[in-house]
Structure formats: structure tokens, C-alpha cells
């Protein structure tokens, strides 16, 4: 009887241990899920680290307390934004969102920092304030759309950079576009024609390729553009905004490597 009672007690004790273990796992899972829910964003892919910002280097670069350097993904290089970024991040703890933790060749981690207590990456706030411009290179498409929506808010309100003349260049003024050679720019105008030559699609904003502005798209990107409702042939005679680094091939050019670099323009 004593041994049977001991066996019953041992069984009940083991069952209690299992229940506690399951409960602990459930609580652990809940705790892990809560930060992820708080950091809801289409950008980043996942939390790779947490750290504290030591100082802001420029409008899209920060140094962490541990010595690491973070480049804000999805933003274009512009001459302003450092003070706005410092106001948002200096001394604050951040969660870094990124697809992986592989640094670039300069040792910088490209990421989407989310300040403690916030739900969105700091890029979204900067864009909505007009203190930054989206590069159009963010992936996946949902992330590019999130950044574009934040930028559109500032553009519609004429905030920050959107109140500065020259933020958007006129496609009909190729000389002014060439003045930005080697720099990031946003060019807007009506597409005159679209044609394909070999593996390249040319979105032409003027009649002469030797002088006028054009955007070039690799043929391999056509399915992505079609999936986004921006089939290049459909752009003819539409007002379009193109963003990227200005090159010169006859006239000024922007090479488009992501769908987010082109959008149909309306209003400002």
C-alpha cells in the first residue's frame, strides 16, 4: 500500500512538473511574441539585435554604444535629416530589423531601427516629416509601399524637403538633371514613348536619346513591373516619377533596378 501510494504521488508530481513546463513554455512564447507584435512592420524581416544609439553621424547613419554602425535601409542620400534623426534616436534604445546581420563592405549593418516604445522603424517617421526621401530600393514590395506611403504624406503636406525647390527635377530640363550627375535625384515628367532594344526597355521623356532624359529597365524585371500594375508599355503618355542615381548615356539616365523606383505621379 505504501509503495502504491508513493507511486501515485510520484505520478502526480511528474504530471505537475509537465504542466508547469508547458505553462512556462506558453508564457515564454507569449513573451517572445509580444515584442514582435509591437514591432509590426513590413520592413526588416525580423529583429536581429537590440542596442543603444551613441550618436547620429548623418541623416541615415548612426553609431551604437557597442561600436557598430547602422545605415538606415530604404533611404536615399540627402543633405538634411541629421538633426531630425538625432532628435528621434540620440541615446535611445532601438531594436534593429533586418533580413540578416551581414554587414556591407564598409562594416555597416543596413537595418530598420525601431526606437523603444515605437511600432514603426524610424525611416517611416523621417519620411512622414519630409526629412528624408525613399530610395525606391527597399524590398519586399510591402516594405517599399510602407515607405512610399509615409513619403506621400509629407509630399501632400509640402513638409520638409517637399517645400524645397529642386527636390523634384523636371524631366523636360535635361541640363538641370545632368547637373546632378552621380547623385540621387527624383525626376518627374510625361513619358513620351516606351521601346525595347535587346534586353533593355527605354522609358523616354523626350524625342532624342542623345539629349533627353530616360529611364532604363532590364527586360528581366518586366514580370515584377507587370505584377505591380506598372507594365512599362502602359507608362506611355502618363506622368511618371523616377528616382535613382543620375548617369549619362547620351542624355541623362536613371537605371531602374527595383519597381519602387518608378511611380505614377499626381499632384506634387
Question: What would your notes on this structure say?
Answer:
The chain is α+β, with helices and mostly antiparallel strands and 268 residues long. It has six helices and 13 strands. It has helices spanning 2-38, 82-89, 122-129, 141-157, 174-178, 222-227, and strands spanning 47-58, 61-64, 69-72, 93-97, 108-115, 168-170, 184-190, 193-197, 200-204, 214-218, 239-249, 251-256, 262-264. Strands 6, 7, 8, 9, 10, 11, 12 and 13 form an eight-stranded mixed β-sheet that branches. Strands 1-2-3-5-4 form a five-stranded mixed β-barrel. Strand 1 (47-58) and strand 2 form a beta hairpin. Helix 3 (122-129) packs parallel to helix 4. The longest helix is centred in the first third of the chain and has 37 residues, at 2-38. It is elongated and about 55 Å long. Residues 1-38 have low confidence and may be disordered.
Features:
elongated; 268 residues; disordered N terminus; 8-stranded mixed beta sheet; 5-stranded mixed beta barrel; 30% helix; alpha+beta
| Rounded average pLDDT | 85
Count of DSSP strands:
13
Question: Biggest β-sheet, characterized?
Answer: 8 strands, mixed
Distance between the termini: 88 Å
Would you identify the regions where 5 or more consecutive residues have pLDDT less than 50?
1-38
Q: What is the overall number of helices?
A: 6
How do the helices and strands follow one another from N- to C-terminus?
HEEEHEEHHEHEEEEHEEE
Query: What proportion strand?
Result: 25-35%
| Shape field | elongated
Integer-rounded radius of gyration: 25 Å
Structural class category = alpha+beta
Helix content: 25-40%
